[in-house]
Amino acid sequence: MPTITNPQYLLDQAKRRVTTSPMLTLPGMGLLEKRLNARDWPQHVMAQPPAGSDLKPVMGDGGLPIIGHMVEMFRGGPDFWLQNYRKHGPVMLLDSPIIPTVAALGPDAGRAIYSNGNKDYSQQGWTPMIGAFFNRGLMLMDFEEHLFHRRIMQEAFHRSRLVGYTEQVDKVVSQVVANDWVANDPRFLLYPAMKELTLDIASMVFMGHEPGTDKELVTKVNKAFTVTTRAGNAIIRTGIPPFTWWRGLKAREYLEGYFEERVRERRGRDGSDLLSVLCQSEDEDGNRFSDDDIVNHMIFLMMAAHDTSTSTATTMSHYLAANPEWQERCRDESDRLGDGPLDIEALEKLESLDLVMNESIRLVSPVQWAMRRTVRDTELLGYYLPEGTNVIYYPGMTHRLEEIYPDPYTFDPARFTEPRNEHKKHRYGFTPFGGGAHKCIGMVFGQLEIKTIMHRLLRRYRLELPRPGYQLKQDYGGMPVPMDGMPIVLRPLH
Ligand code: HEM
Questions:
Q1: pLDDT tens digits for 360-397?
Q2: Most buried by CB count within 10 Å: which residue of 124, 135, 356, 439?
Q3: HEC readout, the chain
Q4: Which keywords does this chain's UniProt record carry (predicted)?
Q5: 367 versus 13: which is more confidently predicted?
Q6: Of 111, 124, 367, 440, which is best to mutate to test ligand 1, by the most ligand atoms within 8 angstroms of its C-beta?
Q7: What domains does the chain contain, in order, with CATH numbers?
């Protein structure tokens, strides 16, 4: 059984602990956050509505020079937005020096943004953030072109394909959870371990590398993914060596080369990994992806699948450790399935895990933002938005509204059951996977993957908090990341 004795392991874990944003780690930041939140910033108008219209102007402020409201956003996440929603209403200007944006808050704004009835909102709101690294990924495409690509990609997420992926996910998970994770040690950090696991899963299920094979290549590819994914959060947002943005561009180049070669290999061959499936996929009219399309989609898919699944599985593990009665309930269902190979029908029986997953991603929503840009002058809930306005919707804030979720900070998975069904109070009250034309295409795949991980984990270990009263703290600088890597104790059951 692996143990934490090796200095290299400890050094590695220590390094992971300090990758958190300085907004969270520098001394005095908590106090600064409190002061900034208490401040009444002078408000200004973003743009005057056309004369004669009864639209209201969007008002807002820029926060501190250079860093704007980063301290409050990175530290407070959804609570920062909630405070602003209560104070300023559903539409406000965040006049950030990096990307000035209109924040659209609450479920009615979610409806307008996701349903996008008049096609006023394009996905190009994402471009300043991640466009350089995830260019021509599905989420960054718009309207007709997006629909064309989505129809072809849909084939790769059909239930008949998910059967094959689930089998492969289980193969990797069983091996890693059984052999690589450290038990009985409160220094074991779940977040980096889970991140490695979801990358190992992707190496097999997405790219067809059997676990333990092509080690050097897989490590290089995984590293390149981590670098590209992080680069969107860079403060210096231009390709100057050796900074984060530049490293992201280099890593993207490497990934393009890697996938170009793989596509050449896979074309015309059978295979059940996602890359092979994308090479074969076609829509009802026989349209297929070009080689370049597949390279771009694969790079985006890896990003879209990886941190989201890591975040969800880690958050679920934390809440199960903190709520032993729910842990037992989930384990009872897993025990009924036993240790046999998993398939979709078996995973569908783990209903308590579905509730725990929903409640976990309500409390810690992995995709914090839906970013859009207006393609013409329009209105949002009675406010005037000129063409070219960046708009950000914040689902995690809606998930904390007490008018939808009474006692919103309490972990209570039963709120998703009959007759309470709190998430159905508003059609856009629960959107961790987005909504409308761009709703997550990998939702079911992700749910199956996460349930496989949790099932194997619960069959093997009891999950415990590292110490009584342990509080989970997130870095909300990008996708939420537990600041301390989330120590957790795995107690072997057998
Ligand atoms: C718990 C896991 C996941 C969460 C919470 C999640 C969340 C989301 C959200 C909120 C969006 C919409 C973004 C927007 O409105 O602009 C999205 C889109 C997308 N997701 Fe996921 N995702 C997850 C897992 C996955 C997985 C496993 C894959 C692939 C295997 C995936 C692939 C995609 C793709 C391709 C899009 C773009 C869809 C489009 O624009 O048509 N996601 N995801």
A1: 999 999 999 999 999 999 999 999 999 999 999 999 99
A2: 356
A3: CCCCCCHHHHHHHHHHHCCCCHHHHCCCHHHHHHHHHHCCCCCEECCCCCCCCCCECCEEECCECCCECHHHHHHHCHHHHHHHHHHHCCEEEECCCCCCEEEECCHHHHHHHHHCCCCCEEHHHHHHHHHHHHCCCHHHCCHHHHHHHHHHHHHHHCHHHHHHHHHHHHHHHHHHHHHCCCCCCCCCEHHHHHHHHHHHHHHHHCCCCCCCCCHHHHHHHHHHHHHHHHHCCCCCCCCCCCCHHHHHHHHHHHHHHHHHHHHHHHCCCCCCCHHHHHHHCECCCCCECCHHHHHHHHHHHHHHHHHHHHHHHHHHHHHHHHCHHHHHHHHHHHHHHCCCCCCHHHHHCCHHHHHHHHHHHHHCCCCCCEEEEECCCEEECCEEECCCCEEEECHHHHCCCCCCCCCCCCCCHHHHCCCCCHHHCCCCCCCCCCCHHHCCCCHHHHHHHHHHHHHHHHHHEEEECCCCCCCCCEECCCCCEECCCCECEEEECC
A4: Heme, Iron, Metal-binding, Monooxygenase, Oxidoreductase
A5: 367
A6: 440
A7: 6-492 (1.10.630.10)
